[in-house]
Amino acid sequence: MPAKSGPLGEAGLLVEDQALGQKQDKTAKTAADQGKAKAPWSNLALRALSGILLAVLAFLATWWGGLAFALLFGLGALLVYREWVAIVGEAPFGIPALIGYASIAGALVCFYVGAWQASLVIPLFGAGFLYFARCSYPFARWCASGILYSAWFGLSAIALRQDPANGFAAILLLFAIVWGTDVAAYFVGKTLGGPKLWPKVSPKKTWSGSIGGLLVGVAFACAVAFALNVPISLLLILMLAALSVVSQLGDLAESHMKRLFGVKDSGNLIPGHGGVMDRVDGLAVAMVAAAVIGLSSGSVTGVATGFLVW
After folding, report:
1. Which of 9, 24, 148, 271 ranks highest by number of CB atoms within 10 Å?
2. Cα separation of 171 and 302, whole Å?
3. At 8, phi and psi to the nearest 5?
4. Contacting residues for 107 by C-beta, under 8 A, at least 6 apart
5. How far apart are the first and last CA of the chain?
6. The pairing of beta strand 202-206 with beta strand 196-198
7. Residues 6 or more apart whose Cβ sits within 8 Å of residue 227
8. Please, what is the angle between helix 207-227 and helix 167-192, to 10°?
9. Dihedral of CA 146/148/150/151: which sign?
């Protein structure tokens, strides 16, 4: 058949080309929309997988105790400080960073070998030096706060686990309340929505997620306590509820810090979660709170027992 020619033939070809182009644009848009729809589920799957792997690693180290636990949480404390330094804009191996690493590592080693008085003093000296003597660095005073935050996290974790009677149970209970709160808050908030908790700091968090996380987190922690033969009293339930709130405040505090410095994630070490600090922000403050409770009613060698029977 001869090819079309003339004005009508050319017009027909032009119309066909336009129709084909519109169809291709529509197909591309549909594919893009499908990609966007799949992306959240892909990210959720990655987040869940890495979260499970981290939970298994944390459980194994907690079950083993001793040096394995101290090394894991000591490394965690150092990584938290490294990310803290990066958030505020200091060099990862500059003077403020190196002073922090030395202070945190020194404190953890001293505590592990039994020199707990030195472990309390060393971070204070490191933080004090940055706060007063090295204030010519733009964010040295922020780094000073990071030393205390990271050191207290590591020291609290080791102090709780070193209790031979109840260290294992106390750490698992903290995992349960913090992670149970975190997971439940995410899914309840996504499902129910509603008023935002603190939109200027964390636009995605809702009051429904916070309250749901609190209730489910306490229930899950009580189930873990029952499985571990930890007596469930009204006081324990209230304490778990308080730790759930504290962990959420720790999460919000880190979000506020990142917004101040224009940072989305503290790092990219953990797929789907960001950095170590993003993953342990709530756990860190909950562990410090639990250690303070334990010390107030027990001894340095019985922090976990003091925490559970307070």
Report:
1. 148
2. 13
3. -70, -40
4. 118, 119, 120, 122, 123, 151, 154, 155
5. 94
6. antiparallel
7. none
8. 150
9. positive
DSSP the chain: -PPP-HHHHHHHHHHHHHHHHHHHHHHHHHHHHHHHHHHHHHHHHHHHHHHHHHHHHHHHHHHH-HHHHHHHHHHHHHHHHHHHHHHHT--TTSHHHHHHHHHHHHHHHHHHTT-HHHHHHHHHHHHHIIIIITTTSTTHHHHHHHHHHHHHHHHHHHHHHT-TTTHHHHHHHHHHHHHHHHHHHHHHHHHH--SEEETTTEEEEEHHHHHHHHHHHHHHHHHHHHHTT----HHHHHHHHHHHHHHHHHHHHHHHHHHHTT-S-S-SSBTTTBSHHHHHHHHHHHHHHHHHHHHHHS-GGGHHHHHHT-
44 phi, psi to nearest 5 deg: -65, -40
Q: Give pTM, 2 decimals.
A: 0.83
Orientation of helix 140-161 relative to helix 66-88, angle to 10° = 160
pLDDT values of the chain reduced to their tens digit, one per residue, 310 residues: 444 444 445 554 444 445 444 544 554 444 444 444 444 445 667 767 877 888 899 999 999 999 999 999 999 999 999 999 999 988 889 889 999 999 999 999 999 999 989 999 999 999 999 988 766 667 888 999 999 999 999 999 999 999 999 999 999 999 999 999 999 999 999 999 899 998 888 888 999 999 999 999 999 999 999 999 999 999 999 999 999 999 999 999 999 999 999 988 787 776 666 788 988 999 999 999 999 999 988 778 899 999 998 6
Amino acid at 112: Y
Measured distance CA(188)–CA(186) in Å, rounded: 6
Residue position matching structure tokens 């404190």: 107
